[in-house]
Design goal:
- This protein has about 475 residues and is α+β, with helices and mostly antiparallel strands.
- It contains twelve helices and 19 strands.
Length: about 475
């Protein structure tokens, strides 16, 4: 007979030799089932590993854990706190959401988690809901989801059931989420049938803190409509840039700050591998922050009627500023950024801030995808067609004609992605939006951004990007 038992929490304590010296009944029973005694050496391998990690690092650890006591699987959320000098040398253990279930129950849960994963991967419309099932964010990859995205944008923050038509549900909303998970729905503007999935996220006093809201189509679209897909992507970018970006920016900043604190060992002694792990977390957080900036810029440059200011900008001056901003990044890879001097000032009509943004993107890419101990060169010159130009050249492997034809496309990363052999600094890659946004900004300033063929007369030339802008009148 299958059974499952849930207990709110269980406490325990270990000494300086990782012996379990006290424990609430469920933890004591697990200790005995695993072959241990109370008091005695901690016999639960999963908890012993967490205790050893917490003591070695001198930091608190909070992590999900599962253990097998010979007949049943036991799990919960473990919080391990190393004791200070006055309290002793061991650790305090707190196991929240303690539960144990027979093997058949675990199999059922694993099957449900597998089905959730399948729906997460196949959903063409996905959103995040709060505890009241109100929409917080939306993501769409479906051409026939445009009306739904527009409705949410016009009247954000409502219950998800107000934006779609539920099939076979006559009761007034809101219903308990378990009664709505799996129901059929009609999405406005779509002729397909959809299945609703509500996957709880987090727990607070036994209730979910929010939900993953998925709409899974019963059948694929018969024909693709490129124009409709472009409109759906444009609306999607506005929702992310206008709603999701401000919400995520502060928590990501906190993650970066906390990771840097751990990496620098400001909170206390730390083993080298944990410091390196914290450095990786900080780098990933910075990468996410940069992607949020790209999404916010995408919303701006794709807005109808987007324009830029028309200022007189000295190209050499803005190039020096951009090179200075990226100086630390270049020095870290022993790359020299050179702004070649010019006999005459080269002045463009452009918006200084947007021009600086483009150059930071171009120089940053050149640094990231060039070999170490190389040079990035920036040159400026006047042209005969009432235009001026600024050129960024690196000594990397360059860009093929096929890559150059696609490199300014939205979400395109193949052109210079660090994983496809073009340079060695790409690593994690980017959002695929930097060059697309730069290209749009150049056009908004009545200019043009291009990839030029490599200089065949130079053995060091790699990728060459040139930005052309209207020349300022003399005076």
């Amino acid at each position: 007979m299958n059974r499952q038992q849930s207990i709110l929490a269980a406490h325990g304590r270990t000494d300086g030799e990782n012996r379990l010296v006290s424990a609430d009944e469920p933890l004591a029973q697990l200790q005995e089932n695993c072959g241990g005694r109370l008091p005695g050496a901690l016999a639960i391998p999963e908890l012993l590993e967490l205790v050893e990690q917490a003591r070695a690092a001198g930091l608190r650890i909070a992590r999900q854990f599962t253990a097998f006591d010979g007949e049943e699987t036991v799990g919960g959320y473990a919080r391990i706190r190393p004791l200070d000098a006055e309290e002793g040398e061991g650790c305090e253990l707190l196991i929240e959401n303690w539960h144990q279930a027979a093997a058949s129950d675990i199999d059922t849960r694993e099957t449900a988690e597998l089905l959730d994963a399948v729906d997460l991967a196949s959903a063409e419309i996905a959103g995040r809901l709060d505890a009241r099932q109100h929409v917080q964010a939306l993501t769409t990859v479906s051409a026939d989801a445009g009306e739904l995205a527009q409705a949410i944008e016009r009247q954000p923050g409502r219950a998800w059931s107000e934006y779609v038509t539920l099939q076979g549900i006559a009761h007034q909303q809101p219903l308990h989420w378990r009664l709505l998970d799996g129901v059929s729905a009609q999405v406005p503007g779509s002729e397909r049938s959809w299945r609703v999935r509500l996957i709880p996220v987090g727990q607070s006093s036994g209730a979910p803190r929010g939900f993953e809201w998925l709409l899974v189509a019963d059948e694929p679209l018969p024909d693709r409509d490129p124009a409709a897909e472009e409109e759906a992507a444009r609306i999607h970018s506005r929702l992310v840039g206008g709603a999701l970006t401000p919400v995520l920016r502060q928590p990501i900043a906190r993650i970066i700050a906390n990771a840097e604190t751990i990496r620098a060992r400001l909170a206390g002694p730390l083993r080298d591998e944990y410091s390196e792990y914290a450095s990786t977390i900080a780098a990933a957080g910075q990468h996410l922050s940069a992607m949020l900036d790209d999404l916010a810029d995408l919303e701006v440059v794709e807005a109808p009627g987007f324009t830029t200011a028309k200022d007189r900008v000295d190209l050499a001056d803005v190039a020096q500023r951009a090179a200075g901003i990226l100086g630390v990044r270049a020095a870290a890879r022993d790359i020299e950024v050179i702004v070649e001097p010019q006999a005459e000032r080269v002045v463009a009509i452009a918006e200084f801030r947007r021009l600086l943004q483009i150059l930071i993107n171009l120089i940053g890419n050149a640094i990231a995808y060039s070999p170490e101990h190389s040079t990035v060169t920036i040159t400026t010159h006047s042209r005969e067609d009432d235009a001026v130009a600024i050129r960024v050249t690196d000594q990397g492997p360059g860009i093929t004609a096929d890559q150059a034809a696609r490199i300014f496309d939205k979400f395109e990363r193949l052109g210079r992605d660090g994983n496809d052999g073009h340079g060695d600094g790409g690593g994690e890659g980017g959002s695929g939006l930097g060059l697309y946004i730069s290209h749009r900004l150049a056009a908004a300033m009545d200019g043009e951004l291009d990839v030029l063929p490599p200089d065949l007369m130079s053995e060091f030339a790699g990728a060459v990007f040139e930005l052309r802008l209207p020349a300022a009148d003399d005076g």
